Amino acid sequence: ENQTCCSNNTPNFQLITNHLEGLLFKSKRDRKIIVVDPKAQSYGDNTTRKEIKSDKYIQVIAYRHSTRRKT
């Protein structure tokens, strides 16, 4: 059996895979890094992490990254 992992950038985030901290996301709006490592001391500037309980899934994690609009 082959296990394959695929990833794509989105209009809002760039995926960074070759990094010592593992999987990272970079906001295209403010260029801030979002760390998705559960053991990280910080998840990034203006970023919060919330675990959501679910009967359907083993684990659900939501990251919220806030950016300020230029006026």
From TrEMBL:
Pfam families: DUF4464 (PF14713). Keywords: Cytoplasm, Nucleus. It is found in: Cytoplasm; Nucleus. GO terms for cellular component: cytoplasm; nucleus. InterPro entries: DUF4464. May be involved in spermatogenesis. PANTHER family: CILIA- AND FLAGELLA-ASSOCIATED PROTEIN 299 (PTHR33588). This is Cilia- and flagella-associated protein 299. It comes from Rotaria magnacalcarata. The lineage of its organism: Eukaryota, Metazoa, Spiralia, Gnathifera, Rotifera.
